[in-house]
Amino acid sequence: MNQHLQPVISTASSRIYETLRRDLVGGRFAAGEKLAINALKEHYHVGLSPLREALNKLAAYGLLIQENQRGFRVPTLSRSELDDIANMRLELEGMAFERAIQHGDDIWEAELLAAAHRLKRADLSLEKGEEWEVLHSQFHRTLVAPCGSVWLLRFIEQLHDQFDRYRRLGPKMPTVRQTLDEQHHELVELALQRDSKAARALMDDHIHKSYQVALKRYQEHA
Amino acid sequence: MNQHLQPVISTASSRIYETLRRDLVGGRFAAGEKLAINALKEHYHVGLSPLREALNKLAAYGLLIQENQRGFRVPTLSRSELDDIANMRLELEGMAFERAIQHGDDIWEAELLAAAHRLKRADLSLEKGEEWEVLHSQFHRTLVAPCGSVWLLRFIEQLHDQFDRYRRLGPKMPTVRQTLDEQHHELVELALQRDSKAARALMDDHIHKSYQVALKRYQEHA
DNA sequence: GTCAGTTAAAAAATCGATTATTATGTATAA
DNA sequence: TTATACATAATAATCGATTTTTTAACTGAC
């Protein structure tokens, strides 16, 4: 979608869209919950029209379910959907990463290092709040950015948002998280070495480990 | 997206969404055109609120570009985007078709034959209007339906709509169209034989031929 | 008790009007 | 001319109120 990047000017509608997207991905709504539009209006101090426009966009994006005449609800979570999302991430991000390694230029290399560095700084503070989430997304976006396909990037972005609904269900898991954090650097290394085979293998492993975390969260979630 | 299937109950918003989607895919708006909301309101006899909600959804879906404070416009067409879309179709539909062949049951086989039959009847009448388009989409949806991934299906649907913006730029091309129509049956044959290798090869060829048609249309469009 | 039918309350969808922003045109100064 | 400031028109975005539909609550017959 990339829609939530660089909204040069902001309208009430685009602001509430971005806020709701963050809150949905961050798990501030219960899965399956029916959204009380009036309550949202009050809570976010926003008018009905921009709010409804944002909800419509989020439904088209897949972060809400819209049922005619009965409003919007948060999609439920399921093991099978998590599997689906993780599988699609494996396929699409793997593909994109390989292509990025083939096409990426030296500017990309610099941006990779920068993004990895910023993320590492955030890793160190054990407090992984919203700021870490932003840097983490940014890092993964950078990895695949020069893959050459706008649509591929769009789908990956969408899958990340979906995946994070599961990953962010519970509190952090320091042990696994540390392994994952280390892999970020190795991903950059392999990218710089243009070793697309090894890079893809590591990306597969990275996504698979993330999947295991997300699955655990989902199962413990009850 | 699949959103435009089975809208059990319809609201003004969902109706105008579906109408606009069809018209956008069918090329009834010029690429790059800025949408005059008031004109749309009159033309489609619909109120402002449902219209804006539909436009917002279409923007999130990728059939419109939304620019804050300056409304909506039809995305431009470009050779590179057509290449991107066709490539993604190759990857994703190929993947989905293989999986469908592995998972599809006998009910699927029946539906395949039915969809192919309906399409063939429409093929024969050289008039390929909106009805043919519906049956054609339906056929391709059926081919990949039991692939097991909701997200894969969603992405493919989206890519088809994008692809058709190019394919439907100009009038029909009987010669190529006939070849493509014949391939529909062969695709069913190979699916029934569960020959996923050959099936994927033919799917690749089918998409590639369609791409050539779309490219020609785009180039002649000028 | 429970089920169908009815009514009241709540919520969703839509309308009509208002406000804010951008685009256009015109006059004036460099 | 060219550019700049200002006024005006056109359009986008938003608000507040109304209509429509759904959900919940209630009633009485079986």
Description:
Two copies of one chain form a homodimer. By secondary structure, chain A is an all-alpha fold. Chain A contains nine helices and two strands, in the order αααββαααααα. Chain A has helices at residues 12-25, 37-43, 48-61, 79-103, 106-124, 130-144, 150-167, 174-192, 196-221; strands at 65-66, 72-73. Chain A has a two-stranded antiparallel ribbon. In chain A, helix 7 packs parallel to helix 9 (196-221). Chain A is globular. Chain A starts with 11 loop residues before the first helix and ends with a helix. Chain A binds chain B through residues 1, 3, 7-11, 13-14, 49, 52-54, 56-62, 66, 68-69, 81, 84-85, 87-88, 91, 95, 148-152, 154-155, 159, 162, and chain B through 1, 3, 7-11, 13-14, 49, 52-54, 56-62, 66, 68-69, 81, 84-85, 87-88, 91, 95, 148-152, 154-155, 159, 162. Chain A binds a DNA duplex (30 and 30 nucleotides) through helix 3.
Tags for this model:
globular; homodimer; 2 strands; mainly alpha; 9 helices; DNA-binding; disordered N terminus; 222 residues; two-stranded antiparallel ribbon
How is this structure best summarized?
With 222 residues, chain A is an all-alpha fold. Chain A is built from nine helices and two strands.
- How are helices and strands ordered from N to C of chain A? HHHEEHHHHHH
Largest sheet of chain A: 2 strands, antiparallel
Measured as a percent range, the helix fraction of chain A is: over 70%
Q: Helix count of chain A, per DSSP?
A: 9
The portion of residues forming beta strands of chain A comes to under 5%
How are the strands ordered across the major sheet of chain A?
1-2
Rg of chain A from C-alpha positions? Answer: 18 Å
The N- and C-terminal alpha carbons of chain A lie at a distance of 31 Å
If interface size is counted as residues with C-beta under 8 Å from the partner's C-beta, which chains form the largest one? A-B, 39 and 39 residues
Unreliable segments of chain A (pLDDT under 50, ≥5 consecutive)?
Answer: 1-6
* Multimeric status of the protein: homodimer
Please tell me what the overall shape of chain A is.
globular
Topology, number of strands of chain A: 2
Query: What value does the average pLDDT of chain A take?
Result: 94
Structural class of chain A: mainly alpha
